[in-house]
């Protein structure tokens, strides 16, 4: 199952992915941008299965940012409808494959039907013991941090929390990712070298792999390349490499 070149003992536990380049993929084929989003869904389904099969514990995918609302209304509407359709169509398979799905972001701004489907999928898969699949929908890293600050401030104002006891764990516990390890590997497709407001806190020490492949073309080969790149890195976390003199 796992490609022979990969060391099973040195896999990232948590992979995060900025699924970028759907529009360019479509444009290169003379198709409307939204066809790229449709093709992107297939790439996400196969990446989830590969991660699960290869023994990765968590996959967090950036599906829609707080800034993506600034796109033309037709594209935003297409994406929201696509999320609804895919969730409806895939829920049984997710359950069968023991995937635990969660949606990270300000969900109350999403269309009501999508919110209902999200609540159903989250509840139905909550007890599943397979891969953790986090879909960042109306997610923004800065907004997530503002929300964490507000929650801590509210508790402080009520006298429930002593400001001097607020530490990194207190902030991490207020993020949408609470309870999840930080990503070890961030993959961004389509060649852009930026974070675009994704997991600003959580990516502090992630290894970053940028590939020119556009998201709809991301496949087993591209994932293997990203994992090989990860395995070639020397993670020091600010310390020194114990293997070099
Ligand atoms: C990523 O692909 C998907 C979303 C942001 C929803 P894009 O739609 O950003 O594709 P490009 O970057 O324009 O090619
Ligand atoms: C990041 O891609 C958001 C998602 C993949 C959902 P964008 O295409 O929105 O990012 P920018 O605009 O190129 O920074
Ligand atoms: Mg883009």
Core attributes:
7 helices; globular; Undecaprenyl pyrophosphate synthetase; 245 residues; single chain; binds magnesium ion; 14% strand; six-stranded parallel sheet; alpha/beta; binds 3-methylbut-3-enyl trihydrogen diphosphate
Provide structural commentary.
The protein has helices spanning 22-28, 33-54, 73-96, 112-125, 141-157, 168-172, 220-231; strands spanning 14-18, 58-65, 100-104, 132-139, 185-188, 207-210. With 245 residues, it is of the alpha/beta class. Helix content is 41%, strand content 14%. The mean pLDDT is 98. Helix 1 (22-28) packs across helix 2 and helix 2 runs parallel beside helix 3 (73-96). It has a domain at 10-140 and 196-230: Decaprenyl diphosphate synthase-like (Undecaprenyl pyrophosphate synthetase, 3-Layer(aba) Sandwich). A six-stranded parallel sheet has the order 3-4-2-1-5-6, with helices on both faces. The chain has seven helices and six strands. Bound molecules: 3-methylbut-3-enyl trihydrogen diphosphate (2 copies) and magnesium ion. One 3-methylbut-3-enyl trihydrogen diphosphate is lined by residues 18-20, 62-65, 68, 192, 194, 196.
């Amino acid at each position: 199952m796992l490609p022979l070149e990969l060391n099973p003992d040195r896999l990232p536990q948590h992979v995060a992915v900025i699924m970028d380049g759907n529009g360019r993929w479509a444009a290169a084929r003379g198709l409307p941008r939204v066809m790229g989003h449709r093709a992107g869904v297939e790439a996400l389904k196969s990446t989830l299965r590969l991660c699960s099969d290869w023994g990765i514990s968590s996959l967090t995918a950036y599906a829609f940012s707080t800034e993506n609302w600034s796109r033309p209304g037709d594209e935003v509407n297409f994406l929201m409808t696509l999320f609804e359709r895919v969730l409806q169509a895939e829920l049984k398979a997710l359950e069968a494959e023991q995937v635990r799905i969660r949606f990270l972001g300000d969900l109350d701004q999403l269309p009501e039907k999508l919110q209902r489907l999200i609540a159903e999928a989250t509840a139905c898969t909550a007890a599943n013991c397979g891969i953790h699949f986090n879909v960042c929908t109306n997610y923004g890293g800065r907004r997530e941090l503002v929300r964490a600050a507000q929650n801590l401030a509210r508790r402080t104002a009520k006298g429930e929390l002593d400001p001097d006891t607020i530490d990194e764990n207190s902030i991490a516990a207020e993020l949408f990712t609470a309870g999840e390890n930080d990503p070890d590997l961030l993959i961004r497709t389509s060649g852009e070298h930026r974070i675009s407001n994704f997991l600003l806190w959580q990516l502090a020490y992630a290894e970053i792999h940028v590939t020119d492949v556009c998201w709809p073309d991301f496949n087993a080969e591209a994932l293997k390349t990203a994992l090989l790149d990860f395995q070639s890195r020397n993670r020091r976390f600010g310390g020194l490499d114990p293997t070099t003199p």
